Amino acid sequence: MGELAVLYQNYPTVTLRHFARLAGVAYHRLRDFLRGERQRQARQQKKIEAQSHVLQLVGQHPTFGYRKLYQQAVKMGSKVGEHWIRHYLRQQKLNPAPHRKRRKPKVETLPESKWPQGRRVQIDATMIQLPQDGKVWVYQVLDVKTRLCLASMAFPQLSSFNALQSLKAGISELKKYVSDNTFLIQSDGGSDFTSAPFQAHCKEIGDWTRCRTSQKGGMGILERLNRTLKYEMVFRHDPQNLAELKALLQKFQLWYNTERLHASLEYQTPLQVAAQEGKILLSA
Questions:
Q1: Which of 55, 74, 247, 280 has minimal CB crowding within 10 Å?
Q2: Region 252-269: what's the mean pLDDT?
Q3: pTM of the entire structure?
Q4: What is the dihedral of CA 187, 188, 191, 197, to 10 degrees?
């Protein structure tokens, strides 16, 4: 239609209706096209100005996405649309490269036959919802052989520092009962356990391996401890905040180690088994 409009300008003596008949197009379509020429030129000029404005903003803020560019355009009085900017950036291939988080290589889960040597100590974190403080996390450390709850510490968030602090407290408690100096730390593949500080400390005291809940000798042992904590203490006493939970954890650790009987320990308490092991080591 645009080519016909240009061609029609070369025949000023021919009526528009006659020209439309000769060109084989509907008269009303050609007429409406010519009448809207001024509006189209205005829209085209507005589009060119908008594109120039967006290119200027891209040069000033090369890392901004289309939303931030739209906010800047609004501040400067431009009336371009947010999704128009998005479409134009994509068309001109001006979208900034998306940030890609570098993922650590996946740690392989080894079977029990391939675990490194050392006394097995497990650590895990479980989430507890408190009425006043919301979600908090309880790190628990367990000696697999005696089932001693070595540490039970609550924090407002997961972090490698909190995991490392809990592990150090647990190992320090275990050394009161046993003479082992090499430990095999077992955990899942959480980022707090695969972090560099946590891994470095595991190498200092022995080694670390990733375990699954379902595998033999895996994290199912500690998951049972987490369940006991919730059903025997947290759900019964209903702590309201982090301070009350920390006080309850001290009572839980004492009760679990000195009163709760374990079928896997021939219905003895963890502390009784740890004391027997200590006597054997002392007599040897």
A1: 280
A2: 94
A3: 0.64
A4: 20
